[in-house]
Amino acid sequence: MPRFFDIAIPVPMRQTFTYRLPERLSGQDVEVGRRVQVPFGNRTLIGVVLSEPVDPELDPEKIKDIQALLPQESQLDEQQVKFLLTCARYYHHPVGDVFSQALPVLLRQANDIDLRQPLCWQVEPSLSDDDLAEKLASIAKTAVKQQALFALLKKQGAMTWPQIRLSGFSKAQLNALLKKELLLESRLPSKVFRFEPKLVATENKLQLTTEQALVVSQISQHLNQFSCHLIDGITGSGKTEVYLQVMEKVLQQHQQVLVIVPEIGLTPQTLHRFEQRFNVPIMLHHSGLNDGERLQTWQSARLGSAAIVLATRSGVFTPMPNLGLIIVDEEHDSSLKQQEGFRYHSRDLAILRARQQQLPVILGSATPSLESLHNAQLQRYHYHRLTQRPGNSKLASMQLVDISTQPLVYGLSGLVQQAMRTTLEKGEQVLLFLNRRGFAPAIACQECHWVCECQRCNRPYTFHHNQQLLVCHHCGSQRRVQKQCQQCGSVRLSPMGQGTEQLEQRLAELFTHYKAVRIDRDSTRRKGELEKRLEAIADNEYQILVGTQMLAKGHHFPNVTLVVMLDVDGALFSYDFRAPEKMAQLLVQVAGRAGRASKPGKVLIQTHYPQHPLLQDLVNNGYEHFARFALMERQQAMMPPYSFQGLVRAEANNAYLPEQFLRDISSQLNNSECALCGPVAAPMEKKAGKFRFHLTILGKDRKSLHQTTQLLIQLAEHHPNKNKVRWHVDIDPQDMSW
Ligand SMILES: Nc1ncnc2c1ncn2[C@@H]1O[C@H](COP(=O)(O)OP(=O)(O)OP(=O)(O)O)[C@@H](O)[C@H]1O
Ligand SMILES: [Zn+2]
């Protein structure tokens, strides 16, 4: 009797496909989670087996054969398959694509792959102290980085290349030490992680404050079962120390820990702190790794040999058979939500996974999302607060600076310049926050006011001075700088407004005795550049830090005592109902970079609207008060988290088709328990040449949202124009500007 299996394959259809196990493979075991190679149309695809053998619904004659079973060493376990199926259902996303996204790129192909454990390096253990000292002396005094790398490995034990790189070292430095026979190269052991007391560097453990101790003990009472904990702790209150101490208890049970953070490349110090505490295999998962490195993380996690996986959002899919805890740090951060393709929220999936696998999950933030606060209010989550900074560091004071009535010099008010001078003269650092990359956000004609726009987006090009380019920040298109106005022919074109690139230049004129450094996506594009700049800031080589929100994220700048937000007005009048929440979070997070050591910090916020209630509330009463008020507003307006939202987006080369498409499917929908809003043009109606429309679904509960979404998808899939319009569904959308 031939056997048939349901298989998920990466095609844009919301269904699974049945295949036959051919005679020549019939002797083999086919477990749920096995990767297989199957024919589809005239292509060959990699799929994943979803079921035990099934009775086919189709005529067996029409069912195609599985071409090959791929190595068992790369298969998913049943737990993982169950989780991914739930993900696909929750987000109404094609199941094959969910599986494909959850696999490392190399496993989406049929090629032979190297599934060995990653290489790692440690100080040659066979060398005596005397030998070491002698060899160490052979490293030139001037080779400071080699010395430092050696010292790090000596302290740390074995490290993989991604770890070494993130610590700021190069392959050349590593190779130099290898050549001098100071290091032993081996593969990370593939044995399952087992805890031993000596793996914790207890000397680095901090004496917990009363508040911290309480949180650690409360969470520790809930290990080995599902529970969700929200740690609402002000910036610098020591959330990381709480994570570390709970992690230790989980590791002690020989279990694995998954830590999800919004960015890793941006915040290498998170990894340092883990390494300093735990001498266990820590594997990384983030966009700075190549495909091979990502596969190695996946594999050691899957084998149970990685004790800790530190990952960005897609790390939530890492298979970890002995998982005992998930931590989502900065749970409010919008980069935890994937904005294209499979649009999942990593925090929400972490909770779903924790529930399915019966383990605790910790969400941490100084500015929790309104969703999480609401869940805490409903007592779905355990709510923990950290209200103080350990030691004598105080939260920075915030002050609004009215710029509607005073002249600015390069965007800086007199009061701000004065405060900067005072701070700099004391030998302390200043951080200037401006969320706008480039030299100027537009180039305009002085005669006729024509603005040079991207034709594909109908938005102004941003002027990048260093590259002498105009770049569209919406679609990425670039062109050379125009010399002449296209409307009136005048050559009097000039930049309008100010971005970080310009600000950095101007500061050199204003503060001649001090050095400024810029941190944004442009200035840190080159590998290792960010680390270099952060290090130089720590060494006080720069006194003025200019940056975008890259600077707001989790950094610890002990000598920064003044933070200036140059322009926060954009968010005050946004169409997006989440804009005030995001702006409040950003403000508090940036402010949290000031005065983190013993020196008190100050935050100056420049605005044209100092009386705006949102700003007043934040500055006078803090985030908690703001959040309570914002939640009340959401409740009155019946917006999330008091309702459940889905969004159908459609786009096409003309404006008519997507609007008509959405209108058709919404008008064909009968008896929906949800309110449908739209179709309306997206806030950015045209992007990269496509016209875009929205249909919003608002349900009073999740069940009705799911039902309505399901029905709309069916209608869309049968619409005659379904191939002329590109459309997708976004459940719990975060960014309505798309
Ligand atoms: N119990 C403690 N005793 C002394 N110092 C502590 C203690 N806990 C944390 N710290 C120190 O306080 C500083 C801030 O801690 P940490 O970075 O963990 O804060 P956080 O809450 O994660 O902040 P943020 O939200 O801004 O990232 C660190 O330098 C940390 O070493
Ligand atoms: Zn564009």
Automatic annotation (TrEMBL):
Helicase ATP-binding domain boundaries: 220-386
Cofactor comment text: Binds 2 zinc ions per subunit.
GO biological process: DNA recombination; DNA replication initiation; DNA replication, synthesis of primer; double-strand break repair
The enzyme's E.C. designation: 5.6.2.4
Keyword entries, A-Z: ATP-binding, DNA replication, DNA-binding, Helicase, Hydrolase, Isomerase, Metal-binding, Nucleotide-binding, Primosome, Zinc
Domain of life: Bacteria
Helicase C-terminal domain sequence ranges: 480-639
Signal peptide boundaries: none
Catalyses which reaction(s): ATP + H2O = ADP + phosphate + H(+); Couples ATP hydrolysis with the unwinding of duplex DNA by translocating in the 3'-5' direction
Keyword set includes Flavoprotein: no
GO CC annotation, single: primosome complex
Cofactor requirement: Zn(2+)
GO molecular function, one term: ATP hydrolysis activity
Residues that, per the record, bind Zn(2+) 1: C445, C448, C485, C488
Binding site residues for Zn(2+) 2: C454, C457, C472, C475
Functional description taken from the UniProt entry: Initiates the restart of stalled replication forks, which reloads the replicative helicase on sites other than the origin of replication. Recognizes and binds to abandoned replication forks and remodels them to uncover a helicase loading site. Promotes assembly of the primosome at these replication forks.
UniProt-listed HAMAP family: PriA
PANTHER family in the record: PRIMOSOMAL PROTEIN N
UniProt record similarity statement: Belongs to the helicase family. PriA subfamily.
Quaternary structure and interacting proteins, as annotated: Component of the replication restart primosome.
Name this protein carries in UniProt: Replication restart protein PriA
UniProt organism field: Thalassotalea mangrovi
The gene coding this protein: priA
